[in-house]
Amino acid sequence: MMKKIKLLFVVFSVLLIVNNTFSQTTHLVLSSRSFHPVTGNDTLNTLKIIDQLHPSRLDWLYCESPAVLKLLKSRNLSFSLAIHPQVPDSAGYTTVKYRIVDINGKPYVPPWMTKSTDHNLYWGCVNNPIFKALFLKKSLQYIDMGAYAIFVDDPIFNVQLQQERPNKYGCFCDYCIKGFGEYLLNHKYGYIDEPTLKQKLRLILNNNKADYNSHDQLLVLYQKYQRESVINFIASWKQKLNAYKPGIKILANNYNGSWNDITSIYDGGICELSRDHLNVPYLDSIYRVADSLSKTQVFSLVSSDQNSHDYLMAYCYKRGRDYLIPWDVYTPTKRNPFYRFYTNTNGVLKLSNDLKMGRISIEINRSKAIDSSLFKLRKTNSKKILQLYSIPPKSQ
Ligand SMILES: [Zn+2]
Q1: In the predicted structure, residue 4 carries a pLDDT above the cut 60
Q2: 256 CA distance to ligand 1 centroid (A)?
Q3: DSSP string for 173-207
C-alpha cells in the first residue's frame, strides 16, 4: 500500500512539473519607437507588421496621435506609451526652469544624446515642482489615451548623473539646494543657509573636477539625497497614477535586467540587453530574480546582428517567456549612435509557426560553441531540432 502511495505521489509530482513547464506561454510583443509611416515618404508600415504578426501587445511606443491609438484599439491591441525625463513643457520645449542644472546653472544633456539633432534635450529635475506637475500631467494624458502602462525610458532620473565619468553627482537647481539644506538638518548635520551651502558645494566640485569617487562627506550625502529624491518622486508619481486609474502599470528600461532600490519601484522591466549578456545562464538568472520580485520582464537586445536576435527569440520560446519583437528600436553602432534596427519579421513568423505546429523544437546545448555559431541544427525524420549553445561566442 505504502509503495502504491509513494508511486502515486511520484506520478503526481511529475505531472505537476510537466504541467508547470507548459504553464508559461510565449506571447509576441511588438516594440516600435515610432508608428510608421512617420512621414509621407516613409515606406515602413507598423500596421502591416501588426497584421502580419498579431502580437499580444505593443510596448515602448512614442505616440500622442489619437488617430493612431484608435487604430490599435480597433485591433484590441493593448499598448504602453513611453515617456522620459526630456518630456517637453507645454510650449513644446525643454525649458531650463524645469530642468536639471549643474552648479553653474548649465542644463544637463545625457552623453549619448550630445550628437542628437533634437534641440529639446534637457532633463527634468525630480525636485522641481513644475517638472513634477508636467510629468504627472503627461502620464495622465497617456492613461486617458488608453495605455495599459506607462513606460519610462530613462528611469533613474537625477541619479543618472552619478553614473557618468567624471561623476556629476546630481542636480544643483535652487529646489535641490533648498531640499538638501532640509535633508542635512533632518540628518543632524546642522543648519547651513542656502547661499552658503551652494558656495560650499561649488568649492568642493571645482576642487574635485578630476576626482571620480570623491569621499567628501557633503558630496556623499548629496548623492544619497538625490537618490532618495528620485525614489520619493517615482513612488509618489506611481501612487497618483494608481489613484487616477487603479491597476495601471509602470514599466522601466531596467538595463541588463537589474533591479535596484529605484527600478524595483516599477512593476516591470523592458530591458535593453547588451550582446555580451546574451547567454542562457544570465537570462535564466535574470528571470529568477524578476519572478522572485513579481516583476514582468522582457528583453530588447541592443544589437543589429539578426542571428543574435533569433537566439533570443528561440530562448524565449524554450523558456515560455514573452518575446519582444524589435521592429524599430535603437541599436547604436560605432558609426551611427541613432541607428534603428528592424528585425526580419518573416523569420519571426516562420519560427513561431514552426514551433506552434511542432515542426521544430528547441533544446539548450551545454557544450561549447563551435566557430562563431549560436545554433546547431539537428534533423530527425519528423522534425528539426534547433539547439542553442548555452554560452554563444562573443559578438564579432
Ligand atoms: Zn534640481
Answers
A1: no
A2: 28
A3: SHHHHHHHHHHHHHTTS----HHHHHHHHHHHHHH
